[in-house]
UniProtKB/TrEMBL annotation:
GO MF terms, alphabetically ordered: flavin adenine dinucleotide binding; oxidoreductase activity, acting on the CH-CH group of donors
InterPro entries assigned: Acyl-CoA_Oxase/DH_mid-dom, Acyl-CoA_Oxase/DH_mid-dom_sf, AcylCo_DH-like_C, AcylCo_DH/oxidase_C, AcylCoA_DH/ox_N, AcylCoA_DH/ox_N_sf, AcylCoA_DH/oxidase_NM_dom_sf, Mycobact_Acyl-CoA_DH
Oxidoreductase recorded as keyword: yes
Domain Acyl-CoA oxidase/dehydrogenase middle span(s) in chain numbering: 130-228
Domain Acyl-CoA dehydrogenase/oxidase N-terminal: from-to ranges: 2-126
Family, similarity comment: Belongs to the acyl-CoA dehydrogenase family.
Protein name as it appears in the record: Acyl-CoA dehydrogenase
GO cellular component: plasma membrane
A Pfam family this chain is assigned to: Acyl-CoA_dh_N
Naturally occurring in which organism (per UniProt): Oryzisolibacter propanilivorax
Cofactor: FAD
Length: 399
């Protein structure tokens, strides 16, 4: 078996070397991410080539069954593809919440028809997804959500009539479909009356309003539902049991977020860049305070990398990693903030440029990435909420 896996690793390595264009091995920046969807566009030929080659191999999702467009690989071979991509610094060919989060959930609890209807377009890179969980009065306390789904049976068939609104919907204005939580039983206890449904964003009654932030732009939207008809076949899992489905999905979201440094999300290596600023020609860091901070961040990064490896092995052995997923999300996002804080300190005023010719494009990108790093400690559940989950589920402390 080992020899077979070694041969597979060789083959993957050679294929990636031959097929991943050099520009697709540079660290990703937000503006260069290729988002799958009906509005798919490429800025460069290399992006297109890389996207198409990976799609043909089914390696948008190496472990998904081939009948749904995936690569059909077992866990060990999937890990080999992932580690070889990481080793070569290959970018993700397609970014899509559907692939990271909804897909694994559909594979677990979706019907065969739902898998065919939704996974196949994701694997062609033709359908972009957004997440409709948060509401104006339901963020950390998500189970207080009020968007309703009233079941009807009429001449058009069985459906839910959805009313209400979702907020902080990342890229809601660009998505083709939304996976959402709606309350289908107002009388049931909080978590029990919630269902997980898939909504076509082109449905009559859906209105998307982008939210402008102080920075002048944002990917956030508020989405309004006004008597939106969602066919019952778009219900994932059982009616009223959407909370359990959402918990599965959030695990995938947290796992995806904890893989930021593996090319899973935008991040140039803040720590490496900081080293470039801090270390002088003799390989030394003169400022004692900065040296201490650098040592701390480096040790944390190393400890995280080793823990990440251990948790990946646990996942590979199909052990429960729901607890570690919260720990990894918390630590990874907080560490990312710490790296950018250090980089900002090392760069001084050069790290605070917002616009204008006085700053290079890299410097402007550092400033935006630094600010953005803070948002990852909120999205997918805040750090405080992760701490609560870890306290309760991992450490077994009382609620
Ligand atoms: C970059 C980004 C992308 C996002 N994308 C999406 C998306 O696509 N779809 C979507 O549905 N949502 C999205 N969100 C929303 C996100 O899920 C919520 O912002 C998050 O769950 C927090 O909810 P809230 O903003 O209502 O804050 P609140 O829940 O009001 O929290 C406010 C503060 O109180 C603290 N707090 C709350 N409850 C507790 C508690 N029990 N114990 C201790 N502290 C507590 C929080 O940690 C926080 O500091 C995104 C957010 C960000 C930042």
């Amino acid at each position: 078996m080992t020899t077979e896996l070694d041969a597979f690793r060789q083959e993957v390595r050679q294929w990636l070397q031959a097929n991943c264009p050099a520009s697709m091995r540079r660290p990703i920046v937000t503006e260069e991410m290729v988002w799958g969807g009906s509005a798919l566009t490429f800025q460069t030929d290399d992006q297109k080539v890389w996207f198409e080659r990976m799609r043909e191999r089914g390696w948008f999702a190496p472990s998904w069954p081939t009948e749904y467009g995936g690569g059909g690989l077992d866990a060990k071979r999937t890990r080999i593809v992932e580690t070889e991509m990481h080793r070569l610094g290959c970018r993700q060919p397609q970014y899509n919440l559907g692939v990271w989060m909804l897909g694994p959930v559909l594979l677990e609890v979706g019907t065969h028809e739902q898998k065919l209807e939704h996974l196949v377009p994701m694997m062609r890179g033709e359908r972009r997804w957004c997440q409709g969980f948060s509401e104006p009065n339901a963020g950390s306390d998500l189970a207080s959500l009020k968007t309703s789904g009233r079941r009807v049976s009429d001449a058009q068939g069985d459906a839910y009539i959805v009313n209400g609104s979702k907020i902080w919907t990342s890229d809601g204005d660009k998505a083709d479909w939304m996976y959402a939580l709606v309350r289908t039983d107002a009388g049931a206890k909080k978590q029990n009356g919630i269902s997980f449904v898939l909504i076509d964003m082109k449905s009559p009654g859906v209105t998307v309003k982008p939210i402008e932030l102080i920075s002048g732009k944002s990917s956030f939207c508020q989405v309004f539902f006004d008597d939106v008809r969602v066919p019952v076949r778009q219900l994932v899992g059982q009616e009223g049991e959407g909370w359990a489905v959402a918990k599965k999905l959030l695990q995938h979201e947290r796992a995806a977020m904890s893989k930021f440094t593996e090319g899973g999300a935008p991040s140039h290596d803040a720590l490496q860049t900081a080293l470039g600023y801090l270390v002088d020609g003799n390989g030394q860091v003169r400022d004692g305070a900065l040296r201490d901070r650098l040592a701390g961040v480096l040790m944390d990064a190393q400890a995280f990398a080793l823990t990440h490896r251990r948790v990946s092995e646990m996942a590979l052995a199909r052990r429960d990693v729901s607890g570690p997923a919260s720990i990894m999300k918390l630590v990874q996002t907080e560490q990312e903030v710490a790296k950018y804080e250090l980089l900002e300190q090392a760069m001084g005023l050069r790290g605070l440029g917002w616009e204008g010719d006085a700053f290079s494009a890299d410097e402007l990108d550092v400033c935006r990435s630094w600010l953005r790093s803070k948002s990852y400690t909120i999205g997918g559940g805040t750090s405080e909420v992760q701490l609560n989950i870890v306290a309760k589920r991992v450490l077994g402390l009382p609620g």
